[in-house]
Amino acid sequence: MHALDILYRRDDKQLAAYRAACTLKTCPIKESYYAYRPSLSTNAAFLALFSFSLCCFILQAALSRRFVGCTIAMVSGCILEVLGYTGRIMSWYNPFNQNGFLMQIVCLTIAPAFLAAGIYLTLSRIVITFGPENSHIKPLSYPRIFIPCDVISLLLQAIGGGMASVASHQDKSPNTGDHIMVAGLAFQVVTLLMFQLLCLDFMIKTLRRMRTMGEAALDPKHALLRGSTKFRAFLVALGLATFCIFIRSIYRVAELSEGWTGALIENQHLFIGFEGAMVVVAVLVLNIFHPGYCFREGYVQKKYKNLFRKKGRRRRRSADVRDEKASPVRDGSSGAATPVQEVAENGI
């Protein structure tokens, strides 16, 4: 019988005590929390990429000062990704150490929930750009539907992760917490699926109305933005990011449904491909095609409109002042200026 089979016949306290006493020199790697040694180079690369993405989101937020909610969600997700891959690097030094394992499994599990929230917040802007008439639901209804769903998913994953972590530290079974995490991930998969279906429905309805009505089907106020190459690239990037997080979430549901000792969680190549690569693609494409940058034409157009309105108001005010100065009636029945008017006119 394999040593690992004998190991898992022990209770949780014996298992935790056994691993606490293990080192790479004294115990087989198959008896670690991972059943493999996490790759230092791969995890360091992911750590560097997520750190770079985090810095980019912060810088882009400071420069654009737009999409604040989206940026907060993306920054939060990237911070958790950085912490998660820090935990995996800790586990390279000692894969039998519990802290690094718990740090990575909790942080990397819940991080994409924040990234999904950032994606949900952009759809209402897209609907407004093309015209609310092309959507079956109101633009503001999208975040009002999907953000609460994402919060539920996040809470389930966080509560489950916390329970599993506490149970593991107390040398008890983490299965209850793991099941709650799986429920949160499954809810996230359903939410992402519904989001993608509504996006597809919006696209189909918009194309159908354009075939019958032409450009009249679209909001003329945002014609410049819709024609922008950057905006169109953002739509592709958003679709790719959503799909990547969706595929990753399906993988994590399958992985964690087997528990912390299943075949999927013990396969490092699957983790790299379906967890690390998918999420890093999602954040980097949204760095390259950041909404604050890709929606710039719409803001520039609005800025000039507001500028023209302000100039028009100033001209009207100047004309009113000239008329007032030319008026014979300024102080009662005489043509003299009142003290208050003199102060205002002289700028004192």
TrEMBL record:
The keyword Transmembrane helix applies. GO terms for cellular component: fungal-type vacuole; plasma membrane. The chain crosses the membrane at residues 44-63, 70-89, 101-124, 145-168, 180-204, 231-251, 271-295. Residues 318-328 have a biased composition (Basic and acidic residues). The keyword Coiled coil does not apply. Keywords: Membrane, Transmembrane, Transmembrane helix. It is a multi-pass membrane protein. Pfam families: RTA1. Its main location: membrane. Residues 311-348 are annotated as: Disordered. It is found in: Membrane. This is Sphingoid long-chain base transporter RSB1. It comes from Letharia lupina.
